[in-house]
Design brief:
Blueprint lengths: L4 E4 L6 E4 L9 E2 L2 E2 L1 E2 L15 E5 L2 E5 L10 E7 L4 E5 L5 E5 L3 E7 L3 E7 L1
Antiparallel strand pairs: 1-2, 1-5, 3-4, 6-7, 7-10, 8-9, 8-11, 11-12
The protein binds fe (ii) ion.
């Protein structure tokens, strides 16, 4: 499965998800080219950012061992499967529940960017 492609404006921080494959690098925001986010590449604690999961019967219970402070938090968790991309936008808890199947989990920290792990 190809990983999703997320891009971010280096000036305003707007986040963009590319639909399908990236065909052009010329997309801009605030007059600048967007940067492509590479999961797990930020110099920050892997254990505090990478999404982990438990399988409970037909449910995938996803957590990120991260603080949910006002200025530093996990914004969303996404679960990509062969035919779906499911986003859960978080509030007080870095947790989401999806129907279990194989796929790729993503978590986005407002300070430390994009993190991913695989569900086998
Ligand atoms: Fe963080």
């Amino acid at each position: 499965m190809e990983k999703l492609i997320f891009k971010r404006c280096p000036k305003c921080g707007n986040l963009f998800k590319v639909m399908g494959e990236l065909k052009c690098e010329g997309v801009t925001c605030c007059g600048d080219h967007l940067e492509t986010l590479t999961p797990n590449s930020t110099d920050a604690s892997f254990e505090k950012h990478v999404p982990t999961f438990e399988i409970d019967n037909d449910k995938l219970i996803v957590t990120v061992n991260h603080v949910m402070d006002e200025d530093h938090f996990i914004e969303w968790i996404c679960f990509q499967t062969k035919d779906k991309e499911q986003f859960v936008y978080l509030d007080k808890e870095a947790k989401a529940i999806f129907p279990y199947e194989k796929g790729i989990l993503y978590a986005y920290c407002n300070k430390h960017g994009l993190w991913a792990s695989e569900v086998e």
